[in-house]
């Protein structure tokens, strides 16, 4: 019953930053965890970050230290900020709920 829409991706040079958004509609997400995943070309989808309803956050080793996940329950939105972008960060970024709901994804391309 929840729909998720990602936005904020684009083409950025190495060393830059992006802030991705995951906007939920149809139901409040204040009481549930939200995950971010990404899928690089030719690779399997991999987990990136999680934020729980109490604000606890967890990050994958591949980008730990360059990620910040946050949520604004008043806007029913979760964010993922990626700093010091590297070419290996390129891929489609998805948000999802533990119930199995996925957004359509937003493309991030890191290239000079």
Short description:
With 112 residues, the protein is mainly β.
Overview of the structural elements:
The protein is mainly β and 112 residues long. 0% of the residues lie in helices and 48% in strands. The strands form 2 sheets. Strands 2-10-9-4-5-6 form a 6-stranded mixed sheet, with no helix packed on it. A 4-stranded antiparallel sheet has the order 1-3-8-7, with no helix packed on it. A hairpin with a 6-residue loop joins β4 and β5. The chain starts with a strand and ends with a strand. The mean pLDDT is 96.
Alpha plus pi helix count:
0
Largest sheet: 6 strands, mixed
Mean pLDDT: 96
- Strands in their spatial order, largest beta sheet: 2-10-9-4-5-6
The radius of gyration over CA amounts to: 13 Å
User: How many angstroms separate the termini?
Assistant: 40 Å
Characterize the overall form: globular
Low-confidence stretches: none
Alpha-beta classification? mainly beta
Strand content: over 45%
Helix content estimate = under 10%
How many strands? Answer: 10
**Helix-strand sequence:** EEEEEEEEEE
């Amino acid at each position: 019953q929840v729909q998720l829409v990602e936005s904020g991706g684009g083409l950025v040079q190495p060393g830059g930053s992006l802030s991705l958004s995951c906007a939920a509609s149809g139901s409040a997400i204040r009481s549930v965890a939200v995950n971010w995943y990404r899928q690089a070309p030719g690779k399997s989808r991999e987990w990136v970050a999680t934020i729980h309803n109490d604000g606890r956050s967890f990050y994958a080793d591949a980008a730990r230290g360059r990620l910040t996940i946050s949520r604004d329950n008043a806007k029913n939105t979760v964010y993922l900020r990626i700093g010091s972008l590297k070419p290996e960060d390129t891929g489609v970024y998805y948000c999802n709920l533990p119930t199995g709901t996925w957004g359509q994804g937003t493309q991030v391309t890191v290239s000079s």
